Amino acid sequence: MGIRVKVGSTVFVLMLLLLVSFALAKDGIRVALFPFVPRDGEKAYLGYLLRDLVKRELERYVEVHDVVLGDNLVRESQLSWDALLVPLTAQTLGRKMQCTHVLSGAFRFRVLGGRERLVVSPRLVRVQDGASLDIPSAVFEWGKLEDFAAYVLEHLGQELGISLASSLPLPVALEDLLPLYEGVVVMDEAIRKYGKNQYPDLPLWQKAFALARETIQKVPEYPEAYYYLACMYRVTRWWAKEIETWEEYLARLSDAYGTSTLPVAQAYFRLASFYLLEKRLDEALRYAERAAELAPSWAEAYLLWGKIWYERGNLEEAKSLFEKALSLSPDLREARYFAQLAEKARIFGKEAYEAYVQGYQSFALGNFHQAATYFAEATRWNPSMKEAYYWLGRALYEVGDLEGSRRAWEKLLELDPLHSQGRRFLERVRREQQHGREAVRAFEEGYRHYEEARYEEAVPYFSQAVSLSPSFSEAHEYLARCYYRMGRREAYLAEREKAAATLPHPEDRAWSYYEMGFELLGWGERDEAKRMLEKALQNNPSLGRAHLLLGDIYAEEKVWLKAFEHYREASRYTEEEEKGRALFGMALSLFSLSRYGDALPLLEEILRDYPYATFIEEAEALWIEALAREKRTEEARRAFEQFFLRFPQSPFLERAMFWCAFALYEGKRWHEVKPFLEAFLARYPQGEFTQKAVEMLGYTCRFLGLEDEAAKHFGRLGGEEGMFLVADSFYRKRDWNGAEKAFQEYLARYPQGKFADEAVLKLASVLFEAGKVEDAVGVIEERKESIRNRFPEDFLRLWARLSWKRKRWEEVASALRELKSRTGKLEKEYALLLALACERLGDEKSAREVLLEAGEDPDAILGRPTAKELQRVLEVMEKGLYEEALERLEALAGRNDLLPEERKQVLFLLGKVCYLLGRFEEARTHLEASLDAPWTLRQEALLYLVDIAYQGKAWNDVIQWASLLEEKQRRDFSIALRVAVAQYHLGNVRESVTILERLKGQGERDAEVRLFLLEGLSALEEYEVFLKEAKEFLSLYPEHPRGESVLVLSSQAAFASGKKQEAKAFVRMYLERFPQGPRRGELLRLLSRILLEEGNPEEAQRILENFRAQGVPSEDLCPLLYATGTLLLKEQRFAEAAPFFREVFSSKESEFFTRAGYWLGVCLEYLEEFEEAQRVYARVSGFPKEDEWVVKARERIAVLKEVQEPENRR
After folding, report:
1. Which domain holds residue 644?
2. Is 975 a member of any domain?
3. Which are the contacts of 1205, defined by CB distance < 8 A and separation ≥ 6?
4. Residue pLDDT, tens place only, 407-427
5. TPR repeats: which residues (predicted)?
6. DSSP three-state, residue 123
7. How far is Cα 85 from Cα 801, in angstroms, rounded to an integer?
């Protein structure tokens, strides 16, 4: 242990001597005192005397910093004493000494009137903010200097927060003290002159010693003399004399202070410190314990006491004393440090820890050989001290002992396998052992440049490393990275492959190639990444991660089969989450290959074994999709319910929900899928599957028989498909007008669209139904062959019917025979048509065969004259010869050989012909009589009856006949519109509005529907809805002839609902669009009423001027003129109101004539124009039609006369 120096104890004692602080009466206040500065440069020693006089009194109240230590700090800072008078300098020193205040000052020595006097100017600086308190200068006689201290404290009392007691008397003569303070000045000179070479035999020190001893000889009871002399000995390192003097100082303190223990405790503290320095531990313990007894709240005493016990090896006692010091002063850093020191020495062993500390200090100073010796000694004292092994490894590394360094770090990692720094340094040593320190340092220098993105500067260092050690794979790798960053792609790839080639084991090479592939992929170099990954698998076919990454690459390239193969291999050679990723990749690949059934078991395995994987939500959504595509409807529904409960906010919820809907749709569970799809579209109105969901919802409504609703959904699809499906909805509703227009618009936009053939076929069918046979033929001829190939059976049926209408019996027969060969059997309708064609072609035999095959009686159809006559009637009607048809039907009706079915047909045809001729009463009679006809005739008869009742305004009959129609016919636009109008006229406005809201937006009669709807809403006083519909109508049909009445109703509705601004806007719109409209007067009256209610005459005038500028005549503006005058009158602005009333009054035809005249007279009275007022009142009273204003005018005339009569008499 002889090698260990006494660094710890020496440093510790010196720290205590420099940073000592004493426990005093006033907590939180600590004052630094400096010598007062002579203004004339003479008698500087008096400044020290003045300082000690103040100190002697001040330390009774607050803590005073050690004056000698303060003086030393000034010298070390190379400051002059008068610099302390500058507040900023004093504040800086005060902070260094941890004081709250700094007291200094200046003085002048004067001899006045034969008396020696001092003029003193003290200054106190507050350290916290640098504020200074200048105590007024005062003059003190030499013999009464003790009054000086009382004077200073009196002025400091409020700032320092102290209550003063009586001053202590000075027991000695001042002249006897002067040698001591002259010696203190000499000490200051010696310290500044000799610098570091302070020895007791130097002249200035000899002089200082002599002066201090002179005072001691004169006044041996003055303690401060011993204090300064002891400090002189300490500076000159005269230890024996210093300790002897401190003991003298201690004895004098006891005599001087009696029961005042603090100064005595301070002396004991100093003595204990120096005995500790001399390693006289028994004496040091005695004095330290005594200091703590005298000052039990003084933390530094316990700190010193603990240090002594530490030196004696009693670590528990030392730690207890350090903690006691820390409890007394929580901010005392030294106590915290030594408490931790004792604890660590207790843990590691005192000898081991001290060796460790000295090794660390040596390492910090760069003495690595000595540090290694200390750290090795620490490991011998404590073989399990891992910190010592760490620093031993560092020190041996610094001196180049790589093997020793390696063993130290290996031992460290045996003790602590998770020590990251040790592992890093061990790897570094092994690297240097493998490649050499020069190569490693070249690599590290290159790496430093690389990290700073200085790639060109890094390249030479990496090149040097690989030159020194060709097998240095990391150097190869980073050299390659530099080349990549510099854009030298070929060099980059070459270096990366060189790096991999240097690795001895195939598995390591494979991993290196994998990392290269991974990195290249991250840089977007997909092809090179694939090449590297393939090389990785050549070296190690079981490298699962390479398979996984290749699977990702091929999946991104949509090469699904290869992706699947690599994912499959990855699943064999990976575990846990990576295996889950591989299974998921397999499932995705199978999905993309449309092998949904094969994907199902993989997805189920993922859901079972990897419930917390990052991709679990997507996997579960795919599972639902696979179940749906495999038509496992119920399982898909249950899976979605589970998914929704687990992941209500999942980003894959849309997908899962759609495929659940798809499963229900494919399962034809229409009543379940409809609300489900509606909920889906409400949640995802613009989602990935929105278009498909809308289409499915449209078809669902179609399958449920809700064709109108289906059309709305198809309309949302937009594009070619949406346009076609909307047209198809019209077709299915048998709305031939709507269907014709919609199919024509579709074909105009998409003449070669994917639905073009079907659209042409259905358009031709519509035209046929509408009686436009030639148009139908012309449409279908353009695409005849294409349609015939795609829709052969539908084409043949339509072509047969078109040929029948055109009397082309051979084409009829040809088409129907081909249809029969395709289907095996003709429907009854087409069998009858084929029989007719054969009969017209003279082939009665074939006609009979066809009828027999169809289950009909040939004689009943071919042989009866009445049947043939009915056929001729139908032909006549088709030509539009209704009068001839009527004659033939009347003749037929009178025959007795008609079969019951024929009679019903005759009655129906009579009704139809009469209807077409406009003879509605006769038509109604015949049609009502035919209602027991077959279903198709009955439905057509009811259609005619509804229209006849509508034309005759027989509203109850309209509703009655419409109710007998089948639902599809009842929902027909024209029928529904008639029913709505009938309900309105019968007072069932709510029922009417409900129907009209459904019809809105359909067909060419949309404007008519909206007008009826507005009337209904107005009647129901549903003004909010009315205004919404009205705005929509005006936007859609700005030029509609009924727009005028809509604007009027809108103005009234807005006013009635309290929306006055909207009402005004509608009025202005009306007057702009219909300046000469017949209802402008009505609206101007409404506007005037609004303005009166709002009470804003300025706005009324502004509106009035706008109308004048538009050229509206004054007679039409009377309501506004009257309203403006009235508003001004309410504000008693009579002069402004009168012209408006006068303008109205000038129009005798105005309905406001009398009231305007009356108020004009009132204004004139207020304006004291009494004669004019009387004339106005007289004109009003002469109005032929008496009203309240005429009566009021007469009353005012009478009042004015009563007032004027006395005036006239005077």
Report:
1. 614-708
2. no
3. none
4. 887 887 888 788 777 787 777
5. 265-298, 299-332, 386-419, 439-472, 510-543
6. strand
7. 125
